[in-house]
Amino acid sequence: MKTLIKTLILATLLIPICGIAETKKPNIVFIISDDQVRDTWYSMPFTHKNIVEAGTEFTKTYITTPLCCPSRASIVTGLYNCHNGVKHNYNVLSVAPVLFEELRKDDYYIGAVGKLLNSYRTEKERWYPYFDYMKIHELAKGFRHPDFNGEYVDKWNDIYGKYKEHINEFFDNRDTSKPYMFWFSPIIPHGPAIPEDQDLNYYGSQEPGIGEWEALRRRGLETQRGLDRIVKLIFTKIDPENDIIVYISDNGYLFDEHGLHGKNVHWDQVVNVPMAIRYDKVLGKGVSSKLVSNIDLTPTIFKWMGKDINQFMFDGIDIVNDSRKYLRLQGWKGMGWRSEISWKAVQTKHRVLAKVIRKRKFVFEEYDLRKDPKQENPLKPSKRLMRYFRHEFKNNSGDE
Fold it and tell me: pLDDT-derived band of residue 56, with 50, 70 and 90 as boundaries?
């Protein structure tokens, strides 16, 4: 009898313990800006206070292939683009978007507003099963004529109101019995970068005398003020003290630095992007100089969800518990007007060794980012670095 009583008492005590041990699935919010360069948080005071300062800012975040579609493809697969098939803006994934696939298996309510992959409009049926709510930019007429699911806005800066409308629709009508994942990827500050009326000329005159690219840079900052107000709306819908909130740019941008404009280059202003993550249960407030990347986001979130990330064969890592010595960065030929150079690079925290085309020949360039942060003075590559990374440059395809 005494043994039976002890067994019953132990069983009773285990009931609440098991309940506590059963982890509630976290809600997940992605905010992915478009062509935002680092060090521009000052244009987004709410975002800076509530994500960057309230979470962890990762100052050494690098995009492995700095173009819109390849960058997002690496986020949703955790893979380098040589492994997920998306080397150019309109390639389709050769693998599953494991981020959405696994969350669907885990019964998440999933919504997406803004950009997905540029190839979306040619393979919509592939994406429908992953989402409960979708308002996607198909961009059949380009960035000057934005749309949502093929319905065009009357004028460009109507998108701010449309973003807010669709955000409200998702959160106000979602299935509250399920955890949710919300993917918000606006075309801000991507050109033509038309700010809301209240923000026009906030960062100075748009007179022609300032130059085309300086004007674009200023307008981009002004559009980020509008984005900041949208982030503020999102915060009224979520639980920031318990949700996973990721803010990252898909790539940076050159505003005529190095005599170029655009992206798909190895220079730091393009590949080193703003990123901050807030997840109060795991991350403290602060700044991290760990070498991290867009390929790390899905592995890290899966780890926080209790998944065995080794089963997925990710190229990315868990940024909290793991570390790396270097990243592979790469760009391919045939990327349209962004094809000034085809290149491949290895990026460490303080140095970059790049193989680029100059005058129709491949050459190596090395930069010391501590002494030359703007990468204006390429060094002759050291023999030690060349030996250490020779396996990364064994062919020109970038596919190894």
Answer: very high
- Beta strands at 261-262 and 275-278: parallel, antiparallel or unpaired: unpaired
Place 10 in a pLDDT band, splitting at 50, 70 and 90.
Answer: very low
What confidence score (pLDDT) does residue 23 get? Answer: 61
Short-list 260, 121, 266, 236, CA closest to 172: 236
Q: What H or E segment, with its residue span, contains residue 366?
A: strand 361-368
Tell me the H-state helices in 67-211.
68-77, 81-84, 98-105, 124-127, 159-173
Question: H helices then E strands: how many in the chain?
Answer: 11, 18
pTM: 0.92
Write the CA distances from 261 to 12, 69, 238, integer angstroms: 67, 18, 37
| Strand pairing category for 261-262 and 109-114 | unpaired
Place of tokens 């949208």: 230
**Tokens at 164, concatenated:** 């807010």
The pLDDT assigned to 332 comes to 85
Q: Strands 244-249 and 275-278: what pairing?
A: antiparallel
- In whole angstroms, what is the distance from residue 137 CA to residue 115 CA? 5
- Give, to the nearest 10 degrees, the angle between helix 297-304 and helix 98-105: 20
In angstroms, the Cα distances linking 148 to 123, 136, 159 are: 16, 5, 9
pLDDT at 336: 46
DSSP 193-225: ----GGGTTTTS---GGG-HHHHHHHHHHHHHH
> 395 falls in which pLDDT band (50, 70, 90)?
low
Q: What is the CA radius of gyration of the chain?
A: 22
Residue 99's pLDDT is what?
98
Strands 147-148 and 151-152: antiparallel
